[in-house]
Structure formats: C-alpha cells, structure tokens
Design brief:
about 220 residues; about 0% strand
C-alpha cells in the first residue's frame, strides 16, 4: 500500500504520551478509591439497564485494545503489514493521522481532567453511590454532566483517524447507543440524592453537549 504516513516509531511515541498521562491519573484515582471503599459507611446502587451498560463497557475496554495494539505494532514498525486488512486507504494519510492525534489528545486530556477533578466523588458504574457523596459541578463537570462518556467517544474517533481504520467507530456506536440510558439511570439516582440542587445543575449544564444559553 502506497501511503503518505508519519514514521511508525514516531507514531508509537505520539500514541504513548497521552496514554501514560491517563495511566498516571488513573493509578492515583484507584489508590484513592481503594482507601475510600475501606472506610465507606454506606451506599446505594444505581438501577442500570445491563444491556446498555454493557455496550458502554464494550466501547470503554475497546479503547485500550486498539490503543495498546496500535502502540506495540507501530513500535515494531509492523502496524500496516500486520493489520493491512483493517486499514482504510482513504484514511491512510499524514493529514488524517495528525488530525486524529489532535482529537485523541483532546479526548485524553478531557478524560484525565475529569478523573483528576472529580477525585473521590467519581465512582465506577457498578460500585454504587456513597451516602456522603458530593455533587461536583465545576471543572469538566461544569461543561457537560457526563464528561467520561464524551471522552470515550472523542478518544475513539481520534484512534480511528490515527490508526487509519473505521473499526473504532463501531465501538463509538456502542457508546452512543448505551450512554443515554446509562447516564439517565445515574441522574435518577443523583436527583433522588440531591433533589433541587441536581435539577438546577441539569438546567445549567448539558448532558453530553455544552449549553450555549443557560437559563
């Protein structure tokens, strides 16, 4: 395949940088979460629809599959020979790769910001909501109410362009289908916990897209 692409080993480095940043923030979060669980005094669980939650999970874990395999194969200079059958020729250009890297970096930074900012008040989906939970309304959660799901979609689109394949977009579709029912289930629980405070937050901040005009 004759393509105009960035050097593969350079791509491996550029793909690795945001992943390392995410891993650093995530490891710090999981240590905090583990300590918090040991001292937990009580929690309530969210009534998720398992099908929609599974679709979101497929998208989330699929991110790491494409990301890590892309780094390894680019580092070995074997990405386009090993996965030639997955590569779309119209995406295999340096312009598409650079655009994909920009989108990937934006999604990764937004995800890392959300994890770092929410801190102990970010809960894994199936872990429940603690009775002393605080409603975080600043930072990325002052832009959209569910920055984590938005980050998944942005990262997957960035990976699709960077890796010159449309397959991550199928995972994006899984997230798109599953995130609204999943987010709605979380919001029912949060509204029950915080009442009018959460309803005011909903009026000010969009669910997945920023509100340009706030009431």
């Amino acid at each position: 395949m004759e393509v105009d692409l960035l050097p593969q080993r350079l791509m491996a480095v550029l793909l690795s940088l945001p992943l390392v940043a995410l891993l650093f923030v995530s490891i710090s979060y999981w240590f905090t979460y583990g300590r918090q669980e040991k001292s937990s005094s009580g929690k309530s669980y969210i009534g998720y629809n398992k099908l929609y939650l599974t679709l979101v999970a497929i998208g989330y874990f699929g991110i790491w599959l494409f990301w890590l395999s892309g780094i390894v194969l680019h580092a070995l200079d074997r990405y386009f020979t090993t996965l030639d059958f997955l590569v779309c020729s119209f995406l295999a250009t340096s312009i598409a790769q650079i655009a994909g890297l920009v989108i990937l970096y934006i999604g990764s930074l937004f995800f890392a910001w959300a994890i770092g900012y929410a801190g102990r008040y970010l809960r894994p989906s199936t872990s429940g909501v603690q009775t002393d939970h605080r409603l975080v309304q600043g930072g990325p959660l002052g832009i959209v109410r569910h920055p984590y799901y938005v980050s998944y979609m942005v990262i997957l689109v960035g990976l699709s362009l960077t890796l010159a394949t449309l397959w991550p977009l199928l995972l994006t579709l899984c997230v798109v289908i599953g995130m609204t029912p999943t987010a709605n289930a979380e919001e029912i629980q949060l509204e029950a916990l915080f009442g009018e405070e959460y309803r005011q937050y909903q009026r000010k901040v969009g669910q997945f897209f920023p509100k340009l005009f706030r009431r």
